[in-house]
Amino acid sequence: MAPPFLKTREEYQKLVDSVDTFLLDCDGVIYHGPKVVPGVKIVLDMFREQGKKIIFVTNNGTKSRRKLKETFDKLGLGATIEECFGSAYASAVYLAEVLNFPKDKQVYVVGEEGLEEELDSFGIKHCGGSDPEDREFKPPIVWEDFKPDDSVGAVLCAFDSWINYKKMAKAMTYLRNNPECVLIQTNTDPTFPTHGSLYPGSGSLSIGIVNASKRTPLVIGKPNKHMMDAILAHHKFDPARALMVGDNLLTDIEFGLNSDIRTLLVMGGVTPNDQIYGDNPSKTVPTFVMESFGDLAVLAEEK
Amino acid sequence: MAPPFLKTREEYQKLVDSVDTFLLDCDGVIYHGPKVVPGVKIVLDMFREQGKKIIFVTNNGTKSRRKLKETFDKLGLGATIEECFGSAYASAVYLAEVLNFPKDKQVYVVGEEGLEEELDSFGIKHCGGSDPEDREFKPPIVWEDFKPDDSVGAVLCAFDSWINYKKMAKAMTYLRNNPECVLIQTNTDPTFPTHGSLYPGSGSLSIGIVNASKRTPLVIGKPNKHMMDAILAHHKFDPARALMVGDNLLTDIEFGLNSDIRTLLVMGGVTPNDQIYGDNPSKTVPTFVMESFGDLAVLAEEK
Hints:
The structure is a homodimer. Helix content of chain A is about 35%, strand content about 20%. Chain A is an alpha/beta fold. Chain A has 2 domains: about 10-60 and about 225-300, Rossmann fold, CATH 3.40.50; about 100-220, HAD superfamily/HAD-like (Rossmann fold), CATH 3.40.50.1000.
């Protein structure tokens, strides 16, 4: 059955009254690239004033929570570090608190400084990542450089603009020679939207390591429930009074469905109208639909 | 039904008498890394003397035919350029003779000099590849560098030890902005055996481009019939009197099956005995099995 498309002030009010915790996707809901979605600042301020909890849930695996906050600050939206939840932080939470990653092991990072910063914040040892030894690779390949290392207990892959053969071969070697070494991807987004186009995303950078190692990776980011487990390890809230808001059926709305949380799809992002209301709609159905998250700003106006 | 395991001189002779053209996988049949398989030199010389055609069929997409010949020469096996057929050459043949690649278009190469050499031999224009501009990439990413280019009519991916984000993003941009631009992979081998271990192979280096571009690639190498089409475009022979010899069920033996050519699996390579004669054998069944291709050397001895 097609989900209700909310349009009136009364429908908005009824929804907002039923929610204590807003889990918000960022790109497509809060902003489109460098532009804040009209009305969103008013909505966020209103919710904060009403004591509602806001958590920005993004698959971005490059930025630490501190960097995500800076992005919000630059856009004039304000945000506390506590409100920011990216897949870099979620991966560190997952390693530290769900997997109880051993203190004497280290994580081989295929990723950038923001991911390392989050691992540091949990005292998780790591190698690779921003180490110039791994970044500044020039062929010819020296095969002897790729040695098994049992101190590596996990390979953690995120967006890494320095991806190269050395990083891939080291990751594969650690995984192949040690069945206890786990393979984790912050997220598997195949593409990355910026500057008005799409470019290879985190999932497309690390799929080669998955393919070569023949491992089934543990994927943290949306739509996987691991992301929700990480959020719930840090934020106490009642899932029945939470709402996941996003513009992407396959990441945001599936994430809500996998986590048993109601969902609100906003249009004007990546989902065309006919995927919801067309003759052959997507099997992924949100609980509610509305045009723009900023439209809730009408609730801040006097009646 | 389990295939016959040939063991006697009489069985060998009967097989050889039925073959005019031997299509030979290299690693695992002719040599193991730097070591020639015992007896193989005698077998090759005997076949050449008997006027049988030998074609070395390898998924190697890095080496030109000239370089493949050098490898054989170094191993003391001798080989003519005509006997060498790698997936780099096969891709150039396919572009030139099957796709009739337009003279005013160019190929964006994610690969190395050997592949460029083969494209040059057919007068196919190309860019990317060994161009230092694409190889020596250092973040930060400049998104404006990735511009659509309608002169690029194909993206051709092979093993490229210089793989980096710039190459992936350019390839994706050309494919995404031009539906007529085709995506070709020389081969999709996920790993690459060398120095006694496995490392990420061609297929694992280009799977990110496939994933990001959401294109169905045209794969040239074994087990795809495109490789046989390319071979048959250059070598005239009767497929009914040909034999594909290899050690890998999924590449070599599938290749024979897809091309309607009899197959001989040799043991001692990557295929364990129980995949053929175990309780739960592979569905890919060779026509014949024998221990080692070098065992045919017995036919060169006097009775």
